Amino acid sequence: MDFIWIFFAFTCGLAVKTVNLPPSIGFLIAGFALNFLGYQADDSLKMLSDLGITLMLFTIGLKLNLKSLFKNEVWLTSSLHTIMWMLITFAIIKVLAIVALSYFAEIDSTTATLIAFALSFSSTVCVIKLLEENGEMRTRHGKLAVGILVIQDIVAVAFLVFATGKTPSIWAFALLALFFIKPIINRLITFVGHGELIPLMGFFIALGSYELFELVNIKGDLGALIMGIFLASHPKATEINKALLSFKDLFLIGFFLSIGFSATPTLEMIGLALLLVLVISIKFGLFFGILCLLKIRCRTAYLTALALSNFSEFGLIVAAISVANQWLSNDWLVILALAVAISFVITNTLYRFAHSFFSRYKTFFHQFERQTCLAEDTFCQPTQAPIVIVGLGRVGMGAYRAIREHGNTPAWGLDAESEKVERLSEQGIQAYCGDAEDAFFWERINLAKLELVLLALPKVIDSISVSTQLRSAGYKGKIAAIARYDDERTELEEFGIDKVFNFYAEAGVGFADESMELLTSNNGLNS
Prior knowledge:
Blueprint: H1 2-17, H2 23-36, H3 43-62, H4 72-98, H5 109-118, H6 124-133, H7 140-164, H8 178-191, H9 197-215, H10 220-230, H11 237-261, H12 267-278, H13 280-293, H14 298-307, H15 314-324, H16 330-351, H17 354-360, H18 362-366, E1 387-390, H19 394-406, E2 411-415, H20 418-426, E3 431-433, H21 439-443, E4 452-455, H22 460-472, E5 478-483, H23 486-495, E6 499-502, H24 503-526
Helix pairs in contact: 1-2, 2-11, 3-9, 3-10, 3-11, 4-5, 4-7, 4-13, 5-15, 6-7, 7-14, 7-15, 9-10, 9-11, 12-16, 13-14, 15-16
């Protein structure tokens, strides 16, 4: 049966990829198909799903800045959204109960509150996968979305404690000892080197923290998240995250399959699930409106709200606990499972067109933006530097240093990660924070002063998006980009990028050229 799961997951994932949709939608379809054919999930699938969620939360923590959770645009947005959403959704459910719509007719106020609460959360798995697939985890809207999700996860854990009656034991205070042994953990991570022990170390810490928190009656997934945050400052945090990436993606297939296995729907249930999905537009409107009121740029607010416009797998957990306590009928578990799955499909589909849609209707969205914005979103252009390097990773910083050594033409760097920009600025590097995929960003600066834009971005889709925004804003200079493979290089050249470098091939050429200089200098000495 395990092979059947793999076969269906691969086939459905490949099928949706051919129509330019994320494979995770195919995995959801595979789960429903297997369920329809009579297959049942067993413990191995649940184990894979749990492993995937634990690793995902751990890797989120590795990339999370704890200070960001205390920003108004994170905690206040999450709090206001939950309160307003529950009031509105409760009212809608009661109206449907009054008109005696099927399954709503017998809902009392307690049940309506539970359903509204279950639907208030956005899916951590869906949103993180969405951001990762689009290379937007470290963008302004990506970090906002993740911060809001973490706040929601904390609320979720609090509900589980209340609903299950599982209160932390007195030994939970012993977890404070982690602060004292952190230097030992850091030295251990450093000692393991860069080989196969790195992913094993990641598993050890993630699963170890899960078990440790479970021992003191605290949700283990919360322990994995906290431990990831705890180790986020370690120099190898990024390396551990990359080492776990493939494992996490593989295990999360089990999660998407399990959603399909959880539902045995009727046509009536599908209709009610679709009805619930319609209120996602309210979720988007609330997130967008609150973020704009808190002085977030309209594009950032739009992308954050769109990414969070789905229902969460946590809704199924709430529903399952409610069914066990006889607060909710079992049929509602199936309806909510369908609504969650459909919301995943809708979010993944709509987000593929998010950037182009915003570019087309940016004037409409701009009218909701406040006249003043947060200090983090302001930008002061360096006027004497005609070269900008977009993306300050290893390749981008290599290009920046090479241009500085050349000495004739100054350059500045642009990156969406504020923490990285702050760190580089302290080193004397002209680094600035900004989202290069934002059309308004390029419209707010003087493009006439720019002669060359270097796109040191890992994904082709990002380079194409930035180039599109540059050209639409009226940029007339040259654009260079990097590619990893020959087909990517061809795609960028056909798109109109002036110069494309295959950095694997170019690294080999540079290595050979500089090495040959050793022979030249040697011959000079011998003569």
